[in-house]
Specification:
The complex is a heterotrimer of chains A (448), B (249) and C (495). Chain A is an alpha/beta fold and 448 residues long. Chain A folds into 2 domains: 324 residues, no CATH class; 50 residues. Chain A contains 10 helices and 19 strands. Chain A has a 10-stranded mixed β-sheet with strand order 2-1-5-7-9-11-13-15-17-19. Chain A has a 9-stranded mixed β-sheet with strand order 3-4-6-8-10-12-14-16-18. Chain A is globular, with a radius of gyration of 22 Å. The relative contact order of chain B is 0.19. In chain B, helix 4 packs across helix 6 and helix 6 packs parallel to helix 7. Chain B has one domain: Rossmann fold. Chain B is built from 10 helices and 10 strands. The model of chain B has no long low-confidence stretch (mean pLDDT 88). Chain C has 495 residues and is of the alpha/beta class. Chain C has one domain. Chain C is built from 13 helices and 23 strands. In chain C, the strands form 3 sheets. In chain C, strands 5, 6, 8, 10, 11, 13, 15, 16, 18, 20 and 22 form an 11-stranded mixed β-sheet that branches. A 10-stranded mixed β-sheet of chain C has the order 4-3-7-9-12-14-17-19-21-23. In chain C, strands 1-2 form a two-stranded antiparallel ribbon. Chain C starts with a helix and ends in a 6-residue tail after the last helix. The N terminus of chain C is likely disordered. Classes of the chains: A alpha/beta (448), B alpha/beta (249), C alpha/beta (495). Strand 19 of chain A pairs antiparallel with strand 23 of chain C, so a sheet runs across the interface.
């Protein structure tokens, strides 16, 4: 308990400093971009990896949990590339593939009318007007160590422009492919700019392709123009045990726009997803939803910062967790209503079902309100499965494991069914079913 | 008793009442009928003093005194009562507490003494019996969990208790079944007196079979377009408001 | 915007008159020298004629304290406190151990009378009988003036029932075994910056012991008064309900109006053994500062109850209307199986007040239950934060919590915040948390005004409805007073 403790750098922090020092010359961009990288890394280095004394990282002590920092993934070998090409052929139309964080234009198909895509590295290299500003603005909104780290080491990503008024019939997919043979790190940052009145569905998913445990630090920045409508989905379902996945999602919603997002998290080692959502213009609407299904020693953290800076916006946040074995679920949701953001209507609900004596759930639904004419509320529940419901199902002839699975499936699917796109609903429902089936198999094994 | 002169009212820049004139004498029950959107409820709110409305010009005189400059509670103390179309729920505030607070606040403004508890209870019981309000309802929070009929009865019961000089009934029959309409109407009729005036606002002539008016005014497009005796109500029952729709447009 | 302007002006206009306990009693005081060091700690201990173990205990706390830093996590801001500029001991010269009321300085008696706390037992009983209640339902009062207890009423009456109710400094002399056994057993001297400071310099406070099976025959209460300038008040309260015992305890506080801030860093420890129940109520009305936010009490208090025995119950009820800054989290450690913790709170802030308050319910035992009802009302330029932690540990099977925290905003320049921490480590735990923030609806206000209530009366009525669940938890005698206090605190908050 000495007055001032200056923590010594952890092995991971030291390794990150070395990685930055040796990688920075090879990273895209010069001049102002280089300066941004240096400043960002300095900002990261000042505080180091976030730990439990940093309020927003209280339940995910990254300094303790991140033991090592992996080197940045090398360019894929010719064989890997060939295998990947085959796998990519099975991807749906409108897929944009990032290979270990690097945009592979050749794996991505033809794009629909009204959409322009380039790589972030190209945009940085040519110092495209506006790119740096939008990166810096996003960074200001998300004052966070891993966002700084991402800004310092971002290697590539996609820059998507959707023309004003464009309306896309089919979803656009961003596919994260992991191919490195050895455990490696990936840093990507993507920008999506949706023009006024445009209509877009954006889906993020992963393509395992035999990748090993790795470390990912991805950032996605979405700018939703006036009156635009965006539906977003994210599947974080194939992360390997022992891996670290840090996902930052920044959304800025302009006047009268609508932005809905859903994420499914299963598997993996340590996962932290942080969402910074800003209601920047009046009368916008948006939902943030997510389901996390956790087993083993998985740790999944979803942290929201929803800021209402304009009048008359409606925000809905709903997150659900199913926690088995020794897993840990973290939900933090902070809704801020700024002075003057009158007529804000904000609601948040986090629910967790715990299935094991060794599981842990930590929730912190937070409200910070500076305007008086608002309706805001939050709720959080945490407990086991409902005994009355289980009993009822059993009296109707369902064996306990099936009754349990039925209730769990319903619990998860309630949020999935609101995605509003039949194919995506089917795909996400299938993921839930697969998770429950895997759980049932391991239960049977452990009983036998 | 109540006189409205050349009243012009807007909300959010949209004109609702236009050069409205109306006179109701002491002891008179005047009915205002008219299609939806004709400005009936606006008129009720403006008389009672709801803030959202912009009075552009005109006067509302209660016994010769313009009440438009008074706050809603001052108007209430002067004896103006509004039975709401949608009585408001106030969680946590026991009905009895509320009644006592309202009655004594009005008495205080009028320079009268507070009622003793036994006297207050006596009056509440009398008003409650008249409107079929069970003591159990008075213990609950005001209007919370009350049915539509219970809420309306509670409002009329308040009228009986507060003994206003002029009462406005805004669509008091909406959402009520026949029995409830009868209870409410009996309550109102019992309060009719030579000193008291009523303005009964309704969309349907049905209520006026139970509360028989002395005069009937038809409102359309934010003004009174026709006035007559109680026979006007039965005429409207046959013809509907169609012929007045054009006036509104 | 006109309404807001008017609000601001009215708050300015009324604030000074509104706090009616702001007077100062001119009475000669004996003080320790200014500042804090080991000698001061020894001085306080010597003044109280304490045994060696307690002196050592205080010194250990002091040595710990100098290594600690003031906490910064709460949502409050204030200029740094210079702990060497404070007096740590101040006692009215004439106060030392009066045996009967006749020996108490009449100036002090007048002070308490002015505060509405008569210390004359006969007068109290007469008053109670006059109100038509049972004669036995008096309230025993321990009156603490700056650093010392000046008088405790009904001691003889209580002694008949076996209840010990006396200043803690007296208990150290008369019941050292009880004090030594329980002091610091709920809030250890190392607990936090302010509690550690209190452990080093605590001056006086109340001690209650209710023996097994005894239901305390009357409400116990302590009335705290800060009088001297630049004097910290560090009282320490210790309440023990032995097996099957029951006690209800109420604490009230006021302070003179001063331009400087006054520090109040108390520690309250409650211990409930098997089947025992403690009900602790607070009506906190320290001086809140003036309209510009100048002056007022810094109320940095550690209150914790330990449900040590099976089926024990501890219930906290607080009505917080005063203080410039409130930093306080009355908590329950639910250690005994089937034990129950409750927290009912009304926190009202106006002017430039800052409140960061809430509770912790730590579920350790089996089938433990807790309930948290918090009502925050922010007006003027105040900031009002609820901060609460609900946690269940691995062995806490069947733990249950229900939390409801609602905030009401009156006006456009204040803030209401909710920061709950919900931590579950057991699948049979059921935690439910709900929170809302809203303003008083215009429809409700208009409805009340149509029925004849003024804007302020209507607001007070609606606010009283909003806080009713909590008011009902207060002992009857104080509920009425609390209700009035709420109306006064909100005066000038509506335009």
């Amino acid at each position: 308990m000495t007055a001032q403790i200056i923590p010594s750098r952890t092995a991971a922090e030291a390794a990150l400093a070395e990685i930055f020092a040796s990688a920075k010359a090879g990273l895209p961009g010069s001049g102002a971009v280089e300066k941004l990288r240096e400043e960002s890394f300095a900002a990261f280095a000042r505080g180091g990896l976030p730990h439990r004394r940093i309020e927003s990282w209280h339940y995910t002590d990254l300094r303790a949990l991140m033991r090592e920092a992996l080197p940045i993934a090398p360019a894929p070998t010719r064989e890997r590339r060939a295998a990947l090409r085959k796998a990519a052929a099975a991807l749906p139309a409108n897929s944009l593939v990032l290979v270990d964080g690097v945009f592979a234009a050749e794996l991505s198909g033809k794009l629909p009318e009204g959409v322009k895509v380039t790589s972030l590295s190209a945009a940085l290299a040519e110092d495209r007007p506006g790119i740096l500003e939008s990166l810096a603005a996003a960074w200001a909104e998300a004052d966070d160590a891993i966002v700084s780290l991402n800004a310092a080491l971002m290697r590539d990503g996609v820059v998507i422009d959707v023309a004003p008024g464009a309306s896309l019939a089919a979803p656009l997919h961003i596919v994260y492919a992991s191919v490195a043979e050895k455990p490696a790190a990936r840093f990507s940052r993507s920008l999506v700019k949706v023009g006024a009145g445009a209509c877009l569905r954006l889906n993020e998913m992963s393509l395992g392709a035999g990748g090993r445990a790795g470390q990912t630090n991805n950032a996605l920045i979405v700018d939703v123009g006036e009156g635009a409508e965006v539906g977003h989905t994210l599947s974080l379902t194939d992360t390997r045990p022992g891996s670290l996945r840090l996902e930052t999602f920044l959304v800025r919603v302009a006047a009268r726009a609508k932005f809905d997002s859903f994420a499914l998290v299963t598997g993996g080692g340590l996962m932290r997803r942080q969402i910074f959502k800003l209601f920047a213009g009046p009368d916008a609407k948006g939902t943030l939803r997510g389901v996390s299904l956790l087993r083993g020693r998985e740790h999944a953290d979803t942290t929201l910062f929803v800021r209402h800076a304009a009048t008359g916006c409606e925000g809905r946040q709903a997150f659900r967790y199913i926690l088995d074995e020794e897993s840990t679920g973290v939900f933090q949701g902070k809704v801020v209503v700024e002075p003057g953001a009158q007529k804000t209507d904000g609601k948040m609900l986090a629910k967790a079902i715990m299935l094991s004596d060794a599981a842990t759930m930590n929730s912190r639904p937070e409200l910070e309100i500076f305007a008086d004419d608002v309706i805001c509320g939050h709720g959080a529940t945490c407990g086991g499965l409902n005994a009355d419901q289980l009993f009822y199902l059993e009296t109707r002839g369902l064996p306990p494991p099936e009754a349990e699975a039925l209730l769990l499936e319903a619990f998860a699917n309630e949020l999935i069914d609101d995605i509003g796109h039949a194919d995506l609903v089917a795909a996400y429902r299938a993921e839930v079913a697969a998770w429950l089936a895997a759980r049932a198999r391991s239960e049977t094994r452990s009983v036998a | 008793m109540l006189e409205i002169k050349n009243l012009n009212v807007a909300i959010g820049g949209r004109r609702i009442l236009n050069d409205l004139d109306l006179k109701v004498a002491a002891g008179e029950v005047a009915a205002i009928m008219g299609p939806n959107g004709s400005g009936k409820s606006t008129l009720a709110y403006v008389i009672a003093g709801k803030e959202d409305y912009e009075v552009l010009s005109g006067e509302v005189l209660l016994d010769g005194e313009n009440v438009l400059e008074l706050s809603p509670d001052e108007r209430a103390a002067k004896g103006l009562f509004l039975a709401f179309q949608y009585p408001v729920e106030i969680p946590g505030v026991a009905t009895m507490t509320f009644l006592k607070a309202a009655l004594n606040a009005q008495r205080k403004q009028r320079g009268e003494e507070e009622l003793s508890i036994p006297e207050f209870m006596k009056r509440v019981k009398k008003a409650g019996d008249m409107l079929d309000i069970k003591p159990e309802m008075l213990r609950r929070a005001l209007n919370v969990g009350f049915s539509g009929g219970e809420k309306k009865r509670m409002d009329i019961m308040q009228m009986a208790l507060l003994e206003p000089r002029f009462a406005i009934l805004d669509e008091t029959d909406s959402g009520l079944d026949i029995d409830a309409v009868r209870i409410v109407a009996d309550g109102v009729n019992a309060l009719r007196s030579r000193q008291r005036g009523f303005l009964v606002i309704t969309h349907y002539p049905r209520l006026l079979e139970h509360i028989v008016p002395d005069t009937v005014h038809v409102m359309a497009g934010g003004r009174i377009v026709r006035s007559g005796g109680k026979e006007l109500a039965s005429e409207l029952e046959r013809t509907g408001y169609r012929e007045y729709a054009e006036e509104a447009a | 915007m006109a309404a807001v302007q008017e609000t601001v002006e009215r708050v300015k206009a009324i604030d000074v008159d509104q706090y009616k306990y702001g007077f100062f009693t001119d009475i000669e005081a004996e003080k320790a020298p200014k500042g804090l060091n080991e000698d001061i700690v020894r001085f306080i201990s010597a003044k109280k004629n304490e045994p060696e173990w307690l002196t050592a205990w205080r010194l250990e706390a002091y040595r710990r304290w100098v290594t600690m830093r003031e906490p910064t996590w709460a949502r409050v801001s204030y200029p740094p406190i210079d702990y060497q500029e404070l007096y740590y001991y101040s006692a009215p010269k004439t106060a030392s151990g009066p045996k009967s009321l006749e020996e108490v300085d009449p100036e002090l008696l007048r002070t308490y009378e002015k505060l509405g706390i008569p210390l004359n037992e006969r007068a109290i009983l007469a008053g109670v009988e006059g109100a038509g209640q049972e004669a036995s339902r008096g309230v025993a009062v321990d009156a603490v003036f700056d650093s010392v207890s000046v008088f405790t009423t009904f001691k003889a009456e209580l002694a008949k029932a076996g209840v010990i109710f006396c200043p803690i400094s007296e208990a150290v002399q008369t019941h050292p075994e009880l004090v030594r056994k329980y002091l610091g057993s709920v809030v250890p001297p190392t607990d936090n910056f302010f509690a550690t400071l209190n452990s080093a310099v605590f001056s006086d406070g109340s001690f209650v012991y209710v023996p097994p099976g005894v239901r305390c025959p009357m409400e116990l209460s302590t009335y705290f008064r800060i009088n001297e300038r630049n004097t910290g008040q560090f009282e320490r309260t210790l309440i023990i309900a032995d097996k099957g015992a029951y006690v209800s305890y109420l604490e009230g506080c006021t302070a003179p109006r001063r331009d400087e801030n006054q520090l109040h860093a108390a520690v309250v420890e409650l211990i409930a053994l098997d089947d025992a129940e403690i009900k602790y109520s607070t009506v906190q009305n320290w001086y809140p500062g003036d309209a510009e936010g100048k002056g007022g009490v810094f109320n940095f208090v550690t209150k914790r109850g330990d449900c040590r025995g099976q089926n024990s119950k501890i219930s906290w009820t607080q009505v917080e209307t005063g203080s410039a800054i409130t930093w306080k989290y009355p908590s329950c450690i639910l250690r005994g199986d089937n034990s129950r913790g409750e927290f009912y709170s009304i926190a009202i802030s106006n002017g430039h007040q800052q409140v960061d308050s809430g509770t912790k319910m730590i579920h350790l035992g089996k089938n433990t239950t807790s309930r948290v009802i918090s009502k925050g009302i922010a007006a003027g330029h105040s900031q009002n934060t609820y901060r609460g932690q609900i946690s269940s540990h691995r062995k806490a099977t069947g733990a249950r919590n229900f939390t409801n925290c609602d905030s009401l905003l009156i006006g456009n320049d204040c803030g209401a915040h909710t920061v709950p921490y919900i931590e579950s480590r057991n699948p049979s735990t059921q935690f439910e948390h709900e929170a809302t923030t809203s303003k008083i609806s215009e429809d409700q206000l208009f409805y009340c005004r149509q029925r004849g209530l003024s804007a302020e009366e209507a607001t007070a009525l609606i606010v009283n409805g909003f806080v009713r669940d909590v008011l009902q938890q207060l002992p009857m005698e104080f509920a009425v007073e609390a209700q009035k206090l709420i109306s006064v605190s909100l005066e000038g908050s509506v335009g």
